[in-house]
Amino acid sequence: MLITCPHCQGSLDIAPELYGHTVECPLCNGKFDVDASEVPASDGGSVKPKRTGWKEKDHANVNFLLSLGIGTAATVIFLGLMFPLRGSIGAIFLDRGWVNWAETFLFFWGLAILGLKVKQNTHQQKATLLNLFPSNLGDQVNSATVGGFIDNIYQIPENLRDTLIVNRIRKALELFEIRNSNSETESFLGSQSDFDANRSAGSYSLIKVFLWAIPILGFIGTVMGLSVAVGSLSMGDNSDPDALKESINNLTGGLGVAFDTTLLGLILSMFLSFPLSAVQKKEDETLTLIDAFCSEKLLPKLDDTDLEAKKKGWLENPDNVPELVKSLADAHETFLKNLNNSTSQLNESAQFIQNQITENQKLIQEFHAALANNLGVAVSHVIETSGAMNKQLMESQQVAVQSLSEAATRVGKSSAEILNKSETQLQETFNHIATGIDMMNQSLKKLGEGQIPGTKKKGLFGFGG
Predict the structure, then answer these.
(1) Residues pairing with 32 in the sheet
(2) Is the residue at 35 inside a domain?
């Protein structure tokens, strides 16, 4: 039914199961209530109801954590019961190390899985006893009666509704209700049978791994026991009876571990294989029973000849030509009506999308204008910041030049002062030297010897004769 959205005025095709409920418009995401009073009158069953079914569980695999917990609890209880028998058979389970413990755990875990499988299979067998085709609904399943048979299945108690046989027949009837074809329904039942068989076979993979791992653990225990036995052989002095006795005890203990682990692994794997085969055979029989029920009870009841007979009668009987023409005219009118409604809905949707595009373009233009404005402000800010930075840089350069000039002036003054002071000190030194030489000449003259030549300043660092 076409409903106009009160928010965006868009035309929506509402499914019959949504009448009287709150729906959300896919065009504007607005929510509104669909009035159940606007539902059109039934056209004699030409519109088939849409069925949703129910959530199906995994009927082949068991709960992993549940089976693990049951197996662990059973292992602990069994090993506890072996303590009173530790002097005899209990020693095999308790005194041979971790290998035997692991073998026992895998054995009881596998038994827990098989026990849960038996419970599931019993539930499936109980569902095969249901009366899925009551006689009051008719002897044949055709386009007129298939709806009643499906409704009868939906009234089955919940604890038996979600089973293999009920799910398979429900899906087959719903397919027949839509397609009205025996061949398609039969093909679907064959495919569903293969799916269930493959899923059932795959559910035993973990137990088969246990059957492989238990003997392997026994062989590992054998190697470990032989290693202990060989390592216990003493290569020293065998004349000591105590040392020889201890060596023999270690040797026999290692051999006992080696043989007991292998023996226990082989026995447990054999004991696990028998119930595994029995449970798997029973589940295969249940699947075969479901296949036989579908082939012998369901398929013979399906009748898709009513539509074919009408078509054939229209073509063979000339009196039915007006009825055929009327049917074609009605179908053509219905097609044109639906086409017009669909075209109108598409036009309204296109108009709504065009309006959305126009609004988005306006938003984009406003965004571009705001972006350009922001970029202009940002550029002006950058220019102002650059000018301030240039001004600060010039001021820093002037300060640096002034500082360098003052430093050069101070260095020049310091150099001149140092040179003047050095020249004065040298002049005084030369005067002292000249005085000393004069005094030596006078002394030599008194002694009657030659004189030392006098010095005379020639310049800053020179001497004159």
Answers:
(1) 23
(2) no
- 188 part of a folded domain: yes
**Block residue for tokens 């008719």:** 138
* 17 in any annotated domain: no
Q: Tokens in use for 152? A: 């009868």
Helix segments in 38-181, DSSP class H:
64-82, 90-94, 98-127, 146-154, 158-161, 164-179
Tokens encoding 250: 């270690």
Closest CA to 8 of 360, 365, 354: 354
- How far apart are alpha carbons 134 and 251 in whole angstroms? 75
Cα–Cα distance, 16 to 2 (Å, whole number): 11
DSSP 8-state code for residue 301: G
Q: Which of the two residues, 38 and 14, has the higher pLDDT score?
A: 14
Does some domain include residue 75?
Answer: yes
Share of the chain above pLDDT 70, in %: 63
Domain shared by 236 and 172, yes or no: yes
Same domain, residue pair 259 and 184: yes
What's the confidence (pLDDT) of residue 180?
82
Q: What is the pLDDT of residue 273?
A: 93
The C-alpha atoms of residue 221 and residue 215 are separated, in whole angstroms, by 10
Task: For the full predicted model, state whether its pTM sits above 0.90.
Answer: no
Which residues are CB-neighbours of 359 under 8 A, at least 6 positions away?
A: none
Same domain, yes or no: 159 and 286: yes
Residue 34 has pLDDT above 70, yes or no: yes
Q: Report d(CA 219, CA 214) in Å as an integer.
A: 9
Q: Which amino acid is at 100?
A: N
Residues 398 and 464: their CA atoms lie apart, in Å, by 52
Q: Are residues 372 and 281 in the same domain?
A: no
Q: Which residue has the tokens 């020293």?
A: 236
Alpha carbon distance 219, 265 (integer Å): 8
What mean pLDDT comes out for the span 76-89? 84
Alpha-carbon distance values, 28 to 6, 123, 166, 364 (Å):
10, 49, 42, 20
Same-domain status, 190 and 339: no
Structural domain boundaries, residue 415: 320-447
* Cα distance between residue 149 and residue 185, in whole Å: 15
pLDDT for 75: 92
Other C-beta atoms closer than 10 Å to the C-beta of 89 total: 10
Whether 152 and 301 map to the same domain: the answer is yes
Q: How far apart are CA 23 and CA 29, in angstroms?
A: 9
pLDDT at 211: 92
The listed range with the strongest mean pLDDT (241-245, 300-304, 358-362) is: 300-304
